[in-house]
Each structure stands twice: as C-alpha cells, then as structure tokens.
Amino acid sequence: MTALNETVANGLAAYYQYVAEHLHKWVDPLSNEQFWKKPYPYGNSVGHLVLHLTGNLSYYLGRRVAETGYVRDRDSEFGDPHPPQKEEALEAFDKAIAMVVETIQAQREEDWGKAYTAEREPEARNRFQIFVRCAGHAYHHVGQIIYLSRELARA
User: Fold this and answer.
1) Which of 16, 62, 100, 102 is disulfide-compatible with 68, CB 3.0–4.6 A?
2) How far apart are CA 26 and CA 17, in angstroms?
C-alpha cells in the first residue's frame, strides 16, 4: 500500500469505527423496549435507524463494492412489524461495520477511482465518493440516534 492509499484507508476505516463506537455509546444503555419505541408520533425509533444504517452499508458498500450479494429491503428497515431483538440488530450492524472496514483495507490505490453505480445513489461516481457519502450518512443518523436516546432517557 502506498503512503497516500494507506492514509486514506486508515482514515476512512477509523471514521467508520468511530461512528460505530458513538452509536453504541447511546444505544447500549437502552432497553429493547426503548430501542423500538418512537418518542414522537412522527419519525423513527432508534432500532429502525440501526436497521437502516445496516441496510445502507450492506447494500452500497457490501453488495456494490465488496460483492457480498446482499439483497436490500429498504422498506422493512423502517416498517418491519416484527423487528429483531435489539441485540440481534446491533450484531448485524457491527458485522456491517466490520465488513466495511475490511473492504476499505482491501482497496488498492487504483480501486478508489473505479466507477460506481447503485440504485438510489446518483451522486457517487467512484468508490472513494461512496465510502465518503456512506460515512456522512451514517453519522447523520447517529446524530438522530443521540437526540432520540436523550428523549427516551427523559421519558
């Protein structure tokens, strides 16, 4: 790995690990009931946001870059009437983060600029862009999770 490639890969991998650590900081103290509770009549539960992040990473980076074969059902990420237990959802999220980190570390210098396309993702034109966009998307939802977790703690 060249110095620049190593810097990019290590920086991105560390950021995804940071996102996961922050998510766990706020989600781990919640009960299973709190995890799935919507504190407002609108919006999502923490659990549904975790499912959404797992699906997002598993599809955009897993299927489209790592070629995992993942099949995404985006609608169920937000509306599954029988969602998994909190521990199962978090385990799937952690596996998605591990897959992302492994995929980042496997990129060679010439891989970052490879053409990229995916359903519902017209902006990312190469692999580097999709890794950055997914990182931003993930932390956006972690921000929502922080807010919801604080609201649930007050209830």
Assistant:
1) 62
2) 15
Q: Quote the tokens at residue 2.
A: 């060249």
Type of residue found at 22: H
Cα(41)–Cα(149) distance, rounded to whole angstroms? 16
Beta bridge partners of 126: 115
Q: What is the pLDDT of residues 107-138, one digit of tens each?
A: 999 999 999 999 999 999 999 999 999 999 99
CB 46 within 8 A of CB 24: no
Sorted by where each begins, the domain ranges of the chain are: 3-154
Which residue type, as a one-letter code, is found at position 136? G
Mean pLDDT of the chain: 96
Helices marked H in 107-154: 127-154
Separation between Cα atoms, residue 82 and residue 84, nearest integer Å:
7
Give the Cα separation of 67 and 148 in Å (integer).
33
Neighbouring CB atoms inside 10 A of 83's CB total 19
Whether the Cβ atoms of residue 130 and residue 121 lie closer than 8 Å to each other? yes
Please indicate, yes or no, whether the overall pTM of this predicted structure exceeds 0.85.
yes
Quote the CA–CA distance of 130 and 118 in Å, as a whole number: 10
Superfamily classification of domain 3-154? dinb family like domain (1.20.120.450)
